[in-house]
Every structure is written in C-alpha cells, then in structure tokens.
Amino acid sequence: MKGMRMPILIGLLVVILGIAYSTTFIVTERDQAIVMRFGEIRRTIKEPGIYFKVPTNFVDTVQFIDKRLQTVTLNDKRVQVRDGRRYVVDAFATYRITGPRQFKESVQANMVLAQDRLQTRLDAALRRVYGQREFNAALSAERAAMMREVRDLLRPEALLLGVTIVDVRVQRTDLLPEVSARTFDRMKAERLAEAAQLRALGTQTKLRIEAEADREAVVTVAKARRESEIVRGKGEAQRNKIFAEAFSKDPEFFAFYRSMKAYVESMGGSDTTMVLSPNTEFFRYFGNEGGASATKAPAAPATGSRTESSSTTTPAATTPTTTAPTTTAPATTAPGTTTE
User: Fold this and answer.
1) How many CA atoms lie within 13 A of 30 on its CB side?
2) Nearest residue to 168 (alpha-carbon basis) of 145, 202, 139, 137
3) Are 108 and 63 spatial neighbours (Cβ–Cβ below 8 Å)?
4) CA 105, 106, 107 angle in degrees (round to 5)?
5) Ranges of H-type helices in 77-176
6) What's the Cα-to-Cα distance from 91 to each of 84, 122, 138, 152, 302, rounded to whole Å?
7) What mean pLDDT value characterizes the chain?
C-alpha cells in the first residue's frame, strides 16, 4: 500500500502545482496585462505584481502588452505643398499603449497591425500639414511648428487605438531630384542676374568716375595752360623790355650780337650750305668788326632778326668756326660756305 501511495501523492502534488501555476501570473514593470474569460475582457492590469485568475487557460487567459515607448517611422514619403511642388520626407512618431482595452478591441493587441494604422494616420497628417504651407516653410523656422501640428492631428486618432502619441519628428525634408534641378537652375539664374546687376552698377560708377576725372583733368590742364600763357607772356614782356633797354643803351653792340647769334643758328648744322653774295647785309660783320658796308649799320640787326626767325627750326650748336669771304670773290663760289 505504501508503494502505491507514493505515485498518487506525487501525481496529486504535480496537479496542485499545475493548478497553482495556472492560477497566478506576474506582470513586470515593462508590461501591462489583459485578463479575458472565455474571450471576453474582464479586467486590465497596469501595475506590476503577482496576480491570480481562474486556473487553467481554458477559462481565463492573460495577454501581455508592452507599455514601453514605441516608434513608428515613415521613410521617403512624397508630400505636396500648396504650390504643387513636392518634398521627400522622413518622419517618425513615438508612442505608448496607454489603453490596453481599446488596443485589444481595435487591433486585437497586434503590434504589427497597430504600426500599419499609425503609419497611415501619420502619413495623412504629414500631407495635410505640408499641403497648407508654402514651399519654403518646411526649410525655415516654421518646421518646429509643423511637427507640433502633425502631433496634435495624430493624437485624437491614436487614442481610438489605445495609443498616446508622445512626439512627432521630421528627420529629413528634401526636394525631389527634378525639383532640385529646377530650383538650382532658378537660384543660379537669380545669382547671375544679381551679378549682372552689380556689374552694371560697377560699370556705371566706373564711367561716372572716369568722366569726372576726365573733366577735372581738362579743367586742370586748361587752368595750367592759361596760367603758363600768362607767365610766358609776362616773361616775354620782361624779356622784350630788357632787350629794348639794352638796345637803347648800345644799338651797335646789339646789332653785332644779333648778327653773331644769327650766324650760329643758321650755320650750326653739319650739312648747312648757304649760297649768298658776300656783299649782302647778312655778312656785314664777316670781315669787319665794325660792320662797315655799303648799307647803314642799323640794318644788320633787322637782317639778323629775319635770319633768326627763318632758321629757328635748326637746333643750336656751339659757335662754328667760319672763314670770312672776300669781297672780290665771285658770287658763284664765295656764298657757298659750309660749317660743322
């Protein structure tokens, strides 16, 4: 009898332990539980601890739901703004399951199904918010307000699933490739137009400055020439005055000086050839220091003056060494006098 009781006791102990195990369940800090009796939700448990139910899973069943922070993402979604242009957007939303009963009733506590529905609602909220904005809004400081607006649009619909949306963030907002090319071309055209305008303004300023500088240069040169002519005239007047005073003091010496100067300037070139009669007034002082000739003495300075004025194009040189022609020489040979 004792040998037969041991297996029975062991079997009873196993049954008791099985019943006790099926009666209790543990809810951890990261979970929440739904207790169902014959498929009907009887209660929800959100606090961690040890709980009891009707033994076996045939009557009461327990379904655990994660209450940690979850994330749903959207990648490469094309959204259209008010003017018809499009963006490529990456966004994500963080959420928690705060209503296990609604979560069970709406999506059967299926996380995959819940993710799909949240993605659909997040996509719709993004399209709505972007569709109310201008093209540059998503790339400006208004982006933070847009994310808050998407979050506020998503929260009421998520609560119907037993989900609380914590936050919504837009990770990336890029232009479509074709839109990027058109935008780049437009920006390039704007920069080129701006550069052309700046160059035109620079050219205009340059021409104005050059015109002012040319005008000032002409005025300055004109003033300088006027002043130089005035100074030159005064100098000429002073020179003539000095010459007149010198001529009045010794007319004979002045005539001699003018003749000598005429000889230097007329015969100073290396290839000067003169064919003149030796009896001309021009050679008055060539053989006679006193300038005696058939003509009267005061005429020599006038002849020298005419010779000087006619030979002013010949550069001055050192006083040449000349040989005075004889008065008896023929006119065909004596006038040809060459000096170097």
Assistant:
1) 4
2) 145
3) no
4) 105
5) 100-107, 111-131, 143-159
6) 21, 9, 13, 15, 112
7) 79
Q: What is residue 96's three-state secondary structure?
A: strand
3-state helix, strand, coil in the chain (%, to 5): 50, 20, 30
Q: Which residues contact 134 (CB under 8 A, 6 or more apart)?
A: 81, 82, 83
| Residue 307: closest CA among 338, 251, 334, 267 | 267
Neighbouring residues of 95: CB distance < 8 A, sequence distance ≥ 6: 69, 70, 71, 72, 118, 158, 163, 164, 165, 166
CATH: 3.30.420.40, 3.30.200.20, 3.30.479.30, 3.40.50.720. Which one for 70-175?
3.30.479.30
Cβ atoms of residues 140 and 86 within 8 Å:
no
pLDDT at 329: 34
Question: Quick one: which of 106, 102, 101 has its CA closest to 36?
Answer: 101
Element containing residue 51 per DSSP (H, E): strand 49-52
What 3-state class would DSSP assign to 35? strand
Angle between helices 299-310 and 251-266 (to 10 degrees): 30
pLDDT band, very low/low/confident/very high, at 4 (cuts 50, 70, 90): low
Please list, residue by residue across 56-94, b when 16 or more beta carbons sit within 10 angstroms of its beta carbon and e when fewer do: eeeebbebbbebeebebebeebebebeeeeebbbebbbe
Q: What b/e string do you get for 314-338 counting C-beta neighbours within 10 Å, with b at 16 or more?
A: eeeeeebeeeebeeeeeeeebbebe
Q: Model confidence over 169-200: pLDDT tens digits? A: 999 888 877 777 777 888 899 999 999 999 99
Residue type, 68: R
- The confidence score (pLDDT) of residue 2 equals 57
User: pLDDT tier at 282 (50, 70, 90 boundaries)?
Assistant: confident
Nearest Cα to Cα of residue 101 among 31, 32, 34, 29:
34
What are the tokens at 225? Answer: 């020439």
In 3D, which of 317, 305, 198, 203 has the Cα closest to residue 258? 305
For tokens 């004889």, what's the residue? 326
